[in-house]
């Protein structure tokens, strides 16, 4: 018996009707991103903006450091860091979910075949069978479409997460690198102070032996030398701890990492400034973490439609065609027809599912609003800190120079016998504190710049298209 034509009689009419119905609008809300008014975004930054340097693309911001060692560390971190690998795996999983969601709206077809041979009362027979089974659930109320929208939005969120991981990783590597360079400078100052204090202690000890110095002065000089030595040892440990952090971030072996760090002098980078000319509203598209949060909101909105569509009837088409041959006789049975599923009684479970999806959307909206406010706060605070560091830099430099000059004068006076050891130690401590303050403010200028780079999005844009 021949198989039926695809559009024959009532079955064909049913199929045409179902295809028409599948074009109906999907139930549930059609997503619209919250307007800036809903997010309480200010129209401009309230903190002072840095105006040094020329405006450049933030994407190439790290080039301003003009620091080959930092560039190599950033490249090494991006090549093998687990946070980026995890973000890439999440993208692959989200892509698979998109394929699964879209496949739910497509017809399915499966085939089967078998062959057997048996012997009954001395008569051997071969039996062969084959068949096709097809089914197609008509997307009457847009459940499949909403699920695909949710999956697409989730994929976009995971892609934004990958960019956010890159920005965060680069900022973390640069922060540790700058911290290490500042630590080196502080260590050099501590070691110089320890050597100077030990020299003073040796001179005082010889003077004591000659009967020209009081025993109390010798004890003070020895105590000062021991304290300075302990400070240098502690500072060395802090530098080593920062190296360990860079090893974990970059994946480089410690000897290789130290070789890269030692390839350049122990000094802080001196990058040019950059102009922050973006308005707060631009953060919504410039910061990858905000894009991710907004896309999660879109996915939650689509899930309301999925839950709502589950409350309505489901219509599907199914058919089967099989053929068999046994003892020279062929048979080709077939079946085709629609089936309708009506959710009649479910104890309110499906309504509760819609309410749950709506609550999940409300939670995602609140999370997005909070993320936007936190982003504006981060930028404003970074601007304030960077402006403060820049404005106090000149004063700290003048203070360090003055205290160092005074300490040198007191030391020369002490060596000539015209000043006390106590005054020398006080002058030396003030000079050391001023030198450390200068290193700290220079370090902070860089760290606040890095924080500002991250706060304004790190140069990421949706159109980069370089996700794995």
List the helices and strands and how they pair.
Blueprint (H helix, E strand, L loop, with lengths): L8 H13 L46 H13 L1 H22 L4 E13 L2 E16 L4 H67 L5 H36 L3 H9 L20 H4 L1 H22 L4 E13 L2 E3 L2 E8 L7 H67 L5 H35 L13
Antiparallel strand pairs: 1-2, 2-3, 3-4, 3-5
Helix pairs in contact: 2-4, 3-4, 4-5, 4-8, 4-10, 8-9, 9-10
CATH overall fold name? Outer membrane efflux proteins (OEP)
Order of helices and strands: HHHEEHHHHHEEEHH
- Determine the mean pLDDT: 82
Q: What's the level 1 CATH class? A: Mainly Alpha
Count of separate structural domains: 1
CATH superfamily: Outer membrane efflux proteins (OEP)
Shape assignment: elongated
Q: What would you call the structural class?
A: alpha+beta
CATH arch. level architecture:
Up-down Bundle
User: How much beta, percentage-wise?
Assistant: 5-15%
The rounded Rg comes to 37 Å
**Number of DSSP E strands:** 5
Helix content: 55-70%
* H/I helix tally: 10
Q: Kindly report how far apart the N and C termini lie.
A: 53 Å
Question: Please, what is the oligomeric state?
Answer: single chain
Low-confidence runs (pLDDT<50, min 5 residues)?
A: 1-9, 11-16, 51-59
- Strand count, sense and closure of the main sheet? 5 strands, antiparallel
Pfam families: OEP (PF02321)
Protein name: NodT family efflux transporter outer membrane factor (OMF) lipoprotein
Subcellular location: Cell membrane
Signal peptide: 1-25
